[in-house]
Write the structure tokens for this entry.
Amino acid sequence: MNTQLKIDFVSDVSCPWCVIGLKSLEQALERVSDVASAELHFQPFELNPAIAAEGEDIAEHLARKYGASEEQAAKTREMIRARGAELGFRFEMDKRARIYNTFDAHRLLHWAEGEGRQRDLKMALFEAYFTKGDSPGDHAVLTRVAAEAGLDPARAAEILASDAYGAEVRAREQLYQSRGIHSVPAIVINDRHLISGGQPPEVFEQALRQIVAQG
């Protein structure tokens, strides 16, 4: 018997650990395909909701927010690059010079869910920012990425030029914050089980098998 799991993946498109968490989770889902299948929904979280449209220098931002020295930041970047490579994702850390507001990207992701292209858009947004160094807050970039994900670029541009889906995104952000989620990635399974962080595939696999066994 194959158990159907509902998985809400709470994340931000400017979070490198969210890329690692998603790729690890997907590997784990392949490993447990003998006992489970999943319906995956991407839920919004903004790491920097108050950031200006032009963004901030990432080194200055991380030093101020986390107190990280350049040496510590360099070690973290290399660890992220190596973890990504193991999972088949290319981080070009030297291209990511700035950090940006991601609210408009989340509005497009909300729309993409109804179009059946949410996962495609999520990965395209990750690649645009972490591999190409493009801004996930730039409307031209977002329109191009939507097209790359198989969505209608004209409709994407219309959404971005309006406030469409803004209220829905805010409501979902507030919902998950009210449930105690203040860091990402946060993976919520069947609205009951929480796995936090960019865990290795083995950790996700073990947790998924335990959840299936518990019924």
Notes: The domain at 3-214 is CATH 3.40.30.10 (Glutaredoxin). The two ends are 11 Å apart (CA to CA). The first strand starts at residue 3 and ends at 11.
